[in-house]
Every structure is written in C-alpha cells, then in structure tokens.
Amino acid sequence: MHNGLQYSTVTNPTTHAKWLDRNLGASQVAISRTDELSFGDLYQWGRGTDGHEKRTSATTTTLSDTDTPGHGDFIITDAAPNDWRDSQNDSLWQGVDGINNPCPAGYRIPSAAEFRSWNVSGIYDAFNSLLKIPTVGSRYNSGASSGSFSANMWCNNFVDTYAQYFSVATTSSIVASERASGYSVRCIKHEESATSVSLDKANADMHIDEELQLTATVLPENASCKVVTWSSSNESVATVDVTGNVTAHSEGTAIITATTVDGGHTEQCEVTVTPPMSGTSVRCLKD
Questions:
Q1: Rg (CA), the chain
Q2: CA 123 to CA 113: how far, in whole Å?
Q3: CA angle 136, 139, 141 (to 5 degrees)
Q4: What's the Cα-to-Cα distance from 241 to each of 107, 231, 257, rounded to whole Å?
Q5: Which domains does the chain have, with CATH numbers?
Q6: Rounded-to-integer distance, Cα 271 and Cα 201, Å
Q7: Which residue in 188, 144, 199 sits closest to 166, CA to CA?
Q8: Comparing C-alpha atoms, which of 98, 57, 264 is closest to residue 187?
Q9: In whole angstroms, what is the distance from residue 199 CA to residue 193 CA?
C-alpha cells in the first residue's frame, strides 16, 4: 500500500528487474491505451508527492527556493532553465534514498537505460508489454496539458539544465525536457547489483569420467541476484551443468566460465583432463 493505493509488480523478461504494474497515482492497470483510471499523476522532475502531481492542481509562478515547496501547486515558468526550483539541484530523485523519491519504500525512479531495456517500439507495443503503458499525455511547464496521444515517463537522469524522460508515441526514445514539466512516474524496485564473481578453483586436474564441483561466489553478499550461468569452451573435453558440476570426457583442456546474470561478470577455471590411471598388477614369484 502506498498513498492509499495497492500496487503489484511486473518483471522485465530481459533484466529480471521488478517494476510497478502501473503509474504512480493510477487506481488500476490499464485495460486500454486510453483508460483514464490508469493514467496516474504527473510529477515535476525532482519533486515529492505534495499534491502538485494531481492533474487538476492549482498553479503558481513563484519558484521554490528549497527542495520542498511547502504547497501542492504546480509551479509554472517560462524563464530559463524552466525549473520549478529557483536554483537547480541535481541530487533530486537519485536512488532509493534520493531526495524527494516519490516511489514506495524499496523502489526508485528508473534510469534511461532501464527504460530502454524493455525494447518497446511505440505506443501499441508499450501497451501490449507487461508495463501496460497508457497514453496519458503530459503537463507543460506553462501549466497547460497535452492531449492523450503519447506517454512520457521521467528518468532519474539529467543533462545540463534538463531532465530526461522516456517518450512513447509512434516510436520510443529518451528525450530531454524542462524540469518544470509534468510527466508520469513508473517506479522500479531497487536491487543491489552484483559487482563480481569468483570461483573456488582457478585450475583443476581431472581424469576422464571424473566429476568436480565448482562453487561460485557472487559479491556483494547482499546482491539481489546471485544467479550464475555456466559454460565450457570445449564440451568434448569437459561439460558443466547448471549447478557448476564438471564432468571430464576426453583428454585435453577446457575453460569453465561462470557468468553472473546480473551485470555479466565472469570468472574462469582451466580444467586439464588426462586419461584414467592404469591399474597396477603385482606378480609374486615362488622360490
């Protein structure tokens, strides 16, 4: 439950990241591209949930000299750099603990790269995706509203005096806009990224038909995803299963690689396979 609304999550099939199933402020998941109950609120970049995000909020031309204006008016301006804040603050909305993060606990504003990872090509594709993105329109820094023919969702990125947003219409792209503009917010669950992987062996000698269990350690310890995939450079010499268990098949050398699903970090073990040891017979001679 967040601000009186119950949200669920959807999982990105490419990155496995969890996203809210609807825009902040939406009472339901979109059942059509023009479903008004799924539109949600329109935030100015970097502002918290203070009432300004409501589509019918009043407007004011008085810029804020703090990160929290202390009112729920939508701040309009036509003077560069077109920010609701008198002096810009690039630290807003940066991460799960970022200033004014409007997302539920444990969630944050996505990056441009995270939006791109959905690979949606336009508004029809976006609605048919798991995100069920509706055409919600936007609110300009002048306070005027655009029609419901596109979807625009804030990223946490900024470029110079502008902030970036994910724009979906006939195509999809990352665009820069005035920070006083009002766009949708779709939150992503904060995940502690994997930074490295290590193996308990760098080299191993095996005989044909022997098995060896390799163990992968993913750091940091609190990484959200510690899943690794395994591969062999020469499966005729040695194969490895999904658990890291290596089986030797023929004489030669194979490189066993563990790769983190999160981040693609790798570590390798060189396996050298030799023929099985020959049995030794003992012959006793009688005096």
A1: 27
A2: 18
A3: 160
A4: 35, 8, 11
A5: 1-191 (no CATH), 196-274 (2.60.40.1080)
A6: 10
A7: 188
A8: 98
A9: 19
- Asked if residues 87 and 81 have their Cβ atoms less than 8 Å apart, the reply is no
Tokens of 262: 């999160």
The tokens describing 132, both together, are 């069920």
Distance CA 144, CA 202 (A): 63
> How does pLDDT run along the chain (287 residues), one tens digit per residue?
899 999 999 999 988 889 999 999 999 999 999 999 999 999 999 999 999 999 999 999 999 999 999 999 999 999 999 999 999 999 999 999 999 999 999 999 999 999 999 999 999 999 999 999 999 999 988 776 766 678 999 999 999 999 999 999 999 999 999 999 999 999 999 988 899 999 999 999 999 999 999 999 999 988 878 889 999 999 999 999 999 999 999 999 999 999 998 889 999 999 999 998 775 444 545 55
pTM of the model: 0.72
State the residue for tokens 């601000």.
Answer: 3
Gap between the Cα atoms of 55 and 139, Å rounded: 8
Pair of tokens at residue 105 = 């606990």
